[in-house]
Amino acid sequence: MTFKYGVRSINDLAPGELTISHFPEIAAEHRPLLRGWSRPMARFTRDHRQKVLYRFGPTITEPGIAERWQDFEARYRSQKRLDTFWMTAIHDVIVEPRLLTVLSDGHFVHENVRPATDFPKLFRGIDGQDIKRVVDSPSERFDSDVAFVPTTTVDEAFLLGSGIYRNYYNWTVRYASRLRIFKSLPPHVKLLIPPMKPHIRGSLALHNIKLRRVVSVQKPVFVRTLHLCSPSSIGRHELSPQLVLGLRRPPQPKDGEAPTAKRLFIPRVGVKVRRVINEAEVIDALAKLGFKTFDCAQHSVTEQARAFHAAEMIVGTHGAGFANIVYSRPGTAVVEIIPEGYDQGVTSYRSLADHFRLKYVPRFAKEAAPDPKGNRCNSDIRIDIKELVRTVAHLAKTRAAGDGSPGDGT
Is residue 199 part of a domain? Predict the structure, then answer.
């Protein structure tokens, strides 16, 4: 049997106008932040994207690297910030499990679906151009022999998010930031989440959400009333103030808990890509400067949140563990070590640092061994220890002098 599916805007499917009145307390907090986190225009006068100078140590000989990062910086600073925050409810919908997309009357909800390139994961054999045509036009549909038959019915639920959840960074940015919003809903409302992974269970514990309120979407679920909210993230850097509201309040340590370190180094342990060839030497050098090596994989989400919140300086290589900077206090120094071949634009952690008012310093590492798949962003690297030590010493001196302004950490 062949089924036809289309893509429609949530404005056409929602019962009435989109509103933020469902959560007045959060909405009230959100409004003042719109000025602070938005691109300067006639009515937005401030821009918290810090000025960052990209410096390259003597080991970095990549041709054109300075020009590349200057271009990344210019494009990043010209991007518009998300300045909307809406909540709405849709009735009689199906939530499919693979990407947690929402179907209403044979249409995917446009603000909920992943990019057209992800649709082949749902529909095998569908031509990419056909998918693009349907996504771009509310009147078009494409045929598929895949039908979404619900096996579970829920009266009322809140969809935590859609898209990538297996990666800790994407889970934190796209999902965990909404847990506070869910807690504002009446207790009878269920929470729809992806299949339970350790970091998902850890985030629920961090926000004190009981499992009896949770429905893990393993197969298509029919929901009579589904609450949706505007995306936390649409692209790599378009992050809503909703993200800050949801994650800026980390858990407080319990009585008797051991104090956490003021300086953290985040290692690349047990990874297959972006390995640090001389990581042992880096750890030794930083230990002499008071750094504690903190392997995120060996700690619960709550422990990670507390550690990053307590730290005054965090150093590590570009990787998902850096998502925990969302729990850091404003003014915390964050040194991100980036492979010299990185070519994806300003990193996501630069964007997070701007949103959470952290002091961001990029440093670059020499490519030691190319990535087998040809992705130079994932090549093994060798860190310039002398340069890193100088950077840390400068940041410590700056902090001691009481200068909390962003800088390049020369």
Answer: yes
Task: Give 305's contacts (C-beta < 8 A, 6+ positions apart).
Answer: 206, 250, 251, 324, 327
Q: Which domain holds residue 369?
A: 65-80+254-400
Residue at which a domain ends, from 247, 264, 279: 247
Segment 294-300 long-range contacts (CB within 8 Å, at least 24 positions apart): 294/261, 294/264, 294/265, 294/266, 294/267, 295/266, 295/267, 295/269, 296/168, 296/266, 296/321, 296/324, 297/269, 297/270, 297/321, 300/202, 300/205
Question: Domain check: are 261 and 239 in the same one?
Answer: no
Q: Strands, DSSP E only, in 261-304?
A: 263-266, 292-293
Residue 51 lies in a domain: no
Residue 93 resides in a domain: yes
The DSSP-derived string for 205-216 is HHTT--GGGEEE
pTM score: 0.85
Per-residue pLDDT tens over the stretch 114-141: 666 777 777 877 777 788 888 888 788 9
Token code pair at residue 215? 């429905």
Residue 90 is inside which H or E element, if any? strand 87-95
Contacts of 123 (CB under 8 A, 6+ apart): 5, 131, 142, 144, 146
Q: SS3 for 292?
A: strand
Q: With a cut of 50, list the residues of the chain below it in pLDDT.
A: 21-22, 33-45, 405-407, 409
Residue 408 lies in a domain: no
Q: What is the pLDDT of residues 7-43, one digit of tens each?
A: 888 878 777 666 554 455 555 555 554 443 333 333 4
Q: What is the pLDDT of residue 59?
A: 94
Contacts of 60 (CB under 8 A, 6+ apart): 340, 364, 366, 384
Question: How far, CA to CA in Å, does 402 sit from each of 7, 350, 360, 396, 406?
Answer: 53, 22, 16, 10, 12
